[in-house]
Design goal:
Rossmann fold, eight-stranded mixed sheet, elongated, alpha/beta, 634 residues
Amino acid sequence: MFMEHFRAGTRTLAERSLAEVRTLDDWNKHKVAARQQLFEMLGLDPLPPKTNLKATVTGTLDHPDFTVEKLHFQSRPGLYVTANVYVPKNLSAPAPAILYVCGHAVVKTNGVSYGNKVGYQHWGAWFARNGYVAMLVDTVQLGELEGVHHGTHGKDMWWWNSRGYTSAGAEAWNCIRALDYLQSRKDVDGTRLGVTGRSGGGAYSWWIAALDDRIKAACPTAGITDLQNHVVDGCVEGHCDCMFMVNTYRWDYAQVAALVAPRPLLIVNTDKDNIFPLDGVVRVHERVRDIYDLHNQPERLGLIITEGPHKDTQELQVPVMRWFNKWLKQSEAPVPNYAEKLFTGQQLKVFEKLPPDEITTKCYENFTQLAVDSASFDPKKALAELQTKTFGGWPTATGPANVRQVAATETDGVRLSVHEFDSETGIRLRFYLAQSIAAPAKALHLETVDESNWKQQLQLAKAGFASAFSEELAGAGIDPKAAVAPQLQQQFNQWMGYIRDHQAAYITFAPRGVGPTAMGGDKRYQTQMRRRFMLLGETLASTQVWDVHRASQAARSLPGLGTVPLHFHASPEMTEVATFAALFEPKLVSLTLAQAPRGDKEAPDFLNWARFVTPGQLLQLAEQKAKVNLPKKR
């Protein structure tokens, strides 16, 4: 079920990627809005203020061909970035500069991190020997200060999605501020700036080149592929969060690459890279080539493929140097030397002692701008933001639900029927409807259950509806003939009495990922499946909200249920799913919750929602749609 959903979603996004761009005029109109969308998807809207960098050189290293400056700056107050700047000797005029963004190199001794700039130092020295000022910046995760890139990958920080935060955004911002620093140097020609990096550094090269026109030439190396590779082929599993924007606007990755046009762009990769596969790289190049052709500047786009796996090699970098020489120096001269590592980590280390005021290691806490409780809260605006930027991944066309009864049984004056329906293409779910046999329903109650409550419902069903739940009981390993505990039998009898006495139609509904459609697999498998949702501009929880919406539509299509009052109920872990569903249900009478909506760190993840509403404001929106019932405070 889930992989079919991912395949269908990937096809949709691939087909619509840049599809509206047919002329140069189309592109020029598209580009401005697209760049702003990318800022937003990187958590950079609004853009943070450009505060004092407080750039500080803590020491220098001397080499016959160049000098290395050991430097730190603050991209935001307390967000320290450590860097090494390689400066050629005997410069007679300001030189072009290369921002070299480092990949995932761990350089540590006795628990002390020297930063990934040490692992990539040979490229800084090489650029300096070829006449460039080269700035190598450490990443948030693998610098001298060790922050976090793997929020959703391995640390269960799913609330990053809810805040619209990605570690890619922190790296992009650090790159923007690094360019500010380079342009402040007297030995740098600020009109001739290039960017390159490999692996993670390749990804950050894409971010800064797409966002900032100060980059005049870009050579991202092994840093991009398309959604087909990431989502369907599983490459996402080999990447941390710094490789991905929060895909609110549902882009494929050629849309990121196209924002570099028409500036000189060289895409570099190897033919056996297992996390940036060749077929996806070529597909990205083909789509971007169309944009360069619209500018009538195909010579400004290049593709270099060398033999080998995902590995840093000189063969990959020689074309990079030639590209920069061509576009930043107007030189076609052969590359005269090779790269070599010359210094120890201790020599290149910036800090003697880590700064006590740093926020680098926890920059995710306050990087994006979140909603606050305020008298100026605009419910209409918040609802519109949620609809487009939290639930924008919902199907745009809703076909028939194709409701079909698959089982039914009767006991004690109550009929239980099991119905299947299409929530969307490829997602077929079930709901379980109990109603009085003797009288028509006066109300329709739909309870969305979590995994714990689903298991309780199965135990209840065993007390009187075992035949209708035969598949579900077997799937859960429950013996339908086993004795029912007296307490459960009493609870079942009370439930039957309520349905008869109140003439209620009561639906138990497990959305996708719960009960019969649970993901299965171990925690790693479930984590990587959940990460795929975000790449398609949704989350598991946001699709569950859609499922609730479609379940209510399907139930309404049954005889006698089309116009009766509708009431939502939610198990504890489905609190936010049911509350969000209530916002989009046109004729809801009440919403009964086991608890109030929780904060973003406790609730399931929904893209960006914490940027638009607080839990209290979410409850306020729900109260404008229906009567909300909460447990009484003790």
